[in-house]
Amino acid sequence: MVKGVLLDISGVIYEGDRALPGAADAVARLRDAGLPLRFLSNSTRSPRRRLVDKLTAMGVSFDPAELFTPAGAVCRWLEETGHRGHFLIHPDLAEDFETAPQQGPKAVVLGDAGPFFTYEALNAAFRVLAGGAPFLALAVNRVFRDADGALSLDAGAFVHALEYASGVQAQVFGKPAPGFFGAAAADMGLTLGEVAMVGDDAEADVAGALSAGCAAAYLVRTGKYRAGDEATATPAPTATVDDLAAAVECILG
Amino acid sequence: MVKGVLLDISGVIYEGDRALPGAADAVARLRDAGLPLRFLSNSTRSPRRRLVDKLTAMGVSFDPAELFTPAGAVCRWLEETGHRGHFLIHPDLAEDFETAPQQGPKAVVLGDAGPFFTYEALNAAFRVLAGGAPFLALAVNRVFRDADGALSLDAGAFVHALEYASGVQAQVFGKPAPGFFGAAAADMGLTLGEVAMVGDDAEADVAGALSAGCAAAYLVRTGKYRAGDEATATPAPTATVDDLAAAVECILG
Question: Residue A4 forms beta bridges with which residues?
């Protein structure tokens, strides 16, 4: 029996602007069972504030302090190392970096900039990397389920583009970085071996959590899930289930 | 003694719009020595016609039939396999695909689109690849020496971005594809073991040519060359020399 649960948000609790049926109730069931929860999002197109608003509007019971985003982890790194960011991010995310240092050597910070991934912006970031700056990736997801229902390019494609051209390896801050899962578990006073993860991304959520040391990781067939995803990820999911409600069923046993 | 020579163009004969000193004379020396030549360009931002015009304006003695470009190789592939292109290329290159098939299943064709590498265009190409289309890369160069003198992102970064997101491996048509060097050698009635290559790209030109089987490959310290490039490429250059004139000196012995 696990002692805490980590939940992905996009594709698990909602898809685009639509709450997934039964998701808010499934979160409530975990609360009722007395399990502490943390929400781990790799969505870097919108600020933390908007995630809070969406979860609230969808009737999910949570405390904003339970929400972990890669931007928060990068802010801490910038402060601790005294770097200022050269940001290649969606403008909507800028508010999550308002408190980041304005001085110091540059570090390239890349998130899912979406339509703001222009050649000019990518080339400017490449030149900063070629000049020796460290490379911080908020996430390296391949794809996400877009508003039109089809899959679209996520930040990972652009991280790989800049890594290939510059020869500089990115440090990843969101899932599947072990430190991202670890910080959320530690915030519940637990070790990774005591928590379960639920997500729709077989790589970043599921294989990432298991590689980091989580006790279990459930892949849901909502969000970006495509038939066969469970066969492509290593380690394989503890179980592949229809949705968050089914995952909660497995967790509560 | 080699029996024919393959020459890279950008960074070897000219940089941007500037002829490199002594390059046209070096080409003439090879002609005088009776060596057949072929010109192999990976520059895919401008059409074949513009390369011909530039070489002519710079006083280089050549026949347009001696010019090999990846676009020509891709056109032949599209015709032979009955595919039509979904093009992610610079609009200036479109004229090189005028004779390509208009019917048949789609194949994604990627060149150095420069400022036309928008998120929208990359995502559209990604979706065609995710639908099962083959992926044809005109080139996979990491960087090129831009008009402002600094290095800029070349097509390779974007090839890797789409490969990572889609899981579809690109077939490369320009250098370092062995078939590209081989077709140019065969056009001179020679095998790769009878020809030397000269280029400024330690990977695509030099290591590529040697891996393909060329007898020798010279790296010039013009164009995109940066100190130490020769140490990063495997196989290493036959010799690293100041410019094309020095490479010709080596070739003629």
Answer: A195
Do you know the residue count of chain A? 253
Is B142's Cβ below 8 Å from some Cβ in A? yes
> Residue A139's closest CA among A23, A249, A44, A225?
A44
> Above 90 in pLDDT, residue A110?
yes
Percent of chain A whose predicted confidence (pLDDT) is above 90: 92
Query: What does the alpha-carbon distance between residue A123 and residue A120 come to, in Å, rounded to a whole number?
Result: 5
Our CA-based measurement puts residue B141 at a distance from the nearest CA of chain A, in whole angstroms, of: 8
Which backbone phi and psi does B162 adopt, to 5 degrees?
A: -75, -35
Q: Does A162 touch chain B (CB under 8 A)?
A: yes
| Residue B89 half-sphere exposure toward CB, CA atoms < 13 A | 26
> Which of A152, A153, A165 is opposite residue B142, by nearest beta carbon?
A165
Q: Is A14 helix (H, G, I), strand (E, B) or coil?
A: strand
- The conformation of residue A95, written as its DSSP 8-state character, comes to G
Q: What is the pTM of this model?
A: 0.89
Residue A181, token pair as written in the block? 């899962």
Residue A1 has pLDDT above 90, yes or no: no
The minimal CB distance from B142 to the residues A127, A153, A164 is found for: A164
Q: Which residues of chain B lie closer than 8 angstroms to A122, CB-CB?
A: 117, 153, 157
Q: Residue A230: is its pLDDT beyond 90?
A: yes
Summarised one tens digit per residue, pLDDT across range A142-180 is: 998 888 989 999 999 999 999 999 999 999 999 999 999
